[in-house]
Write a structure and sequence with these properties.
SBP_5_dom; SBP_5; Solute-binding protein family 5 domain-containing protein; alpha+beta; 23 strands; 2 domains; Dipeptide-binding Protein, domain 3; D-Maltodextrin-Binding Protein, domain 2; signal; globular
């Protein structure tokens, strides 16, 4: 799973950030290619034998500083690897600072493959995938120079079970649902740090092995291994949350020099990283400077100026108003990247109980106008969505909930409200949005206008751009959240499977089930799919997607997503990461 930046969630426009994002596409990010929406790959290949060091990038040179602008994106709230589940944070940390059991590597033709990282291979399962064993490399180290031990990896994985300490982390979806005994054990912090409280994760420091027992078959454990939560943590108090999240120890080619949430992250070389231990990462630049919550208009001006500041910079998005100019000026340095991501409006299932009202909301959404207002390029970075599962995902069904693709149609919305028994202006929608930048506020204006023209009354609660809407939407005790009956979520698959979309968004009690959808029969179907033969699961997820949408319509898919990245002329190898839907940080360099 990975959520993307929350402001985009509300506006369904500038999607950018949750955790693992599946999909690749050998030509989705081809520099200079004709720009039109492209689907992600349906699969990610694996190479369990690949070893370090990563082969050099042709023409690459060492040195220099890369500045990365993230317009309208507040970035990660902390840097604790166990808590990382956003596209923005994961793409930076997984590439540059934090290693895990496995990782993704970009090949020469642009496709992404799953390869080993701290583990010597992709793990060894038993016959029914209820137990996995990983052997940890002996030549990988912390930024202190100390070797990474199997015990530290086992402890890092155990931390992912602590949903109280890490309520928005990926372990809330995978570790707590698949690891044996997770229904009883609450994690090393919540369960009073009892070292003997949980025995489903065992280690052998001499043999350098970590073994994990599952409560049910989990054939995708090697994919889950690519999350930072499946990596090491210092033992004991040294990694106590939340303090550890301010400046965690690095295991990758770069380490944290400074971090100001919602403002800036500075990374410098980690001289204790061992290239021979790493099959996919490089260490070309001397320094990385990430600028969060950047003003989109100012960033576009910088990237299109061609001045010294822009030459060693890149931007993780580009505004629609400058798309034509950027296409002409940047050429091969304007890179389009696909990803398996869908944007949603999430009506509160406990408050908006009539399916006709939820359908009315789908017709009240100003699709292209909202995208344009938030800086997206209709037909290139956003297209209308018709399902929960995104294009390129195996098993996805082509269907339309109401017999047609939802488009902005206020008269149709009013008809549906009338069928539900509501007069124009009678049904009130209460939503939150990020204020503070022209794009977020312009997109919100479009959404409110669409709702009001469609017969809804709107109460909109502004939230500073520095505060992620996810912190509100995923907190049941938050006072603002208690008032809302319309939320959002942007979701990217953690790997190319419906198992990383539907359960995370619609299982009862799931952290990112911001619609609060709950149907026991659907929960049971999700559990049953995990027990099917592997070759039957993709089609089953697609069928369940259609069933949920047509019978319940609990969340409203508003857009499928591509991204545009703008690279300065001295950024070498300008490419995207198709597994994370982000710039390809692992392979970038500053040209001499």
């Amino acid at each position: 799973m990975r959520r993307t930046k929350p402001l985009a969630i509300v506006a369904c426009a500038a999607l950018l950030s949750l955790a693992a994002c599946g999909g690749g596409g050998s030509d989705d990010d081809t520099p200079g290619a004709d720009k039109s929406f492209r689907n992600a790959d349906t699969d990610i290949a694996k190479d369990a034998e690949l070893q370090g060091p990563a082969e050099p990038i042709e023409g690459a040179s060492e040195g220099g500083t890369v500045t990365v602008y993230l317009p309208d994106d507040p970035g990660p709230e902390d840097l604790d690897p166990t808590n990382g589940w956003s596209v923005t944070g994961n793409s930076i940390q997984q590439a540059l600072t934090h290693r895990s059991l496995t990782q993704y590597k970009r090949t020469e033709d642009g496709t992404m493959i799953l390869v080993p990282d701290l583990a010597e291979d992709l793990g060894t399962p038993n016959d029914d995938f209820t137990e996995w064993t990983f052997t940890i490399r002996e030549d990988a180290s912390w930024e202190t120079g100390d070797p990474i031990t199997a015990e530290e990896v086992a402890f890092g994985i155990e931390r992912s079970l602590d949903s109280a300490a890490f309520p928005s982390g990926p372990g809330t979806e995978y570790s707590v649902n698949f690891f044996a005994g997770a229904d009883k054990y609450k994690g090393p912090y919540t369960d009073a740090k009892k070292s003997d409280a949980y025995d489903a994760i065992t280690f052998d420091n001499d043999a350098r092995t970590v073994t994990i027992k599952m409560a049910k078959p989990f054939p995708d454990m090697d994919y889950w291994g690519a999350f930072m939560a499946m990596g090491p943590a210092p033992l004991g108090d040294a990694s106590e949350p939340p303090e550890y999240g301010r400046k965690p120890l690095s295991t990758g080619p770069y380490k944290v020099e400074s971090f100001r949430p919602s403002e800036e992250l500075v990374l410098v070389r980690n001289d204790q990283w061992v290239p021979e231990s790493d099959p996919a990462r490089h260490q070309y630049p001397d320094k990385w400077v990430f600028k969060f919550s950047a003003d989109p208009t100012q960033v576009d001006q910088i990237m299109l100026s061609g001045n010294a500041q822009s030459q060693t910079s890149l931007s993780a998005s580009l505004s629609s108003s400058n798309y034509a100019d950027a296409t002409e000026k940047l050429g091969d340095r304007l890179v389009q990247q696909s990803a398996q991501c869908t944007s949603f409006w999430a009506p509160d299932y406990t408050k908006i109980t009539d399916i006709n009202v939820r359908k009315a909301l789908a017709y009240a959404y100003r699709y292209e106008d909202a995208w344009l207002a938030s800086g997206e390029v209709p037909g290139v970075t956003r297209v209308p969505a018709n399902s929960i599962m995104p294009p390129g995902m195996a098993g996805k069904k082509e269907y339309n909930v109401d017999g047609e693709q939802f488009t902005y149609n206020p008269e149709k919305a009013k008809e549906l409200l009338s069928e539900a028994g509501y007069e124009p202006g009678e049904f009130e929608i209460t939503m939150a949005y990020n204020e503070g930048t022209p794009t977020t506020e312009a997109a919100q204006e479009q959404l409110e206008a669409g709702l009001e023209e469609s017969g809804f009354k709107v109460t909109a609660i502004p939230v500073p751009i520095e505060t992620s809407l996810y912190t509100i939407w995923t907190d049941p005790s938050n006072n603002i959240n208690k008032r809302l009956n319309l939320r959002g979520v942007n979701w990217c698959s953690d790997w190319p499977s419906g198992s990383t979309m539907l359960p995370a968004l619609l299982r009862t009690g799931a952290t990112y089930n911001t619609a609060l959808f709950s149907e026991p029969a659907i929960d049971a179907e999700m559990d049953a799919i995990n027990e099917l033969p592997l070759e039957e699961q993709a089609d089953a997820w697609g069928s369940l997607d259609e069933e949920i949408s047509t019978e319940y319509f609990p969340i409203i898919p508003t857009a499928f997503r591509n991204d545009l990245f703008a690279f300065g002329e001295k950024i070498g190898n300008p490419t995207g990461d198709g597994a994370l839907g982000a710039p390809n940080y692992k392979d970038l360099y500053v040209a001499k």
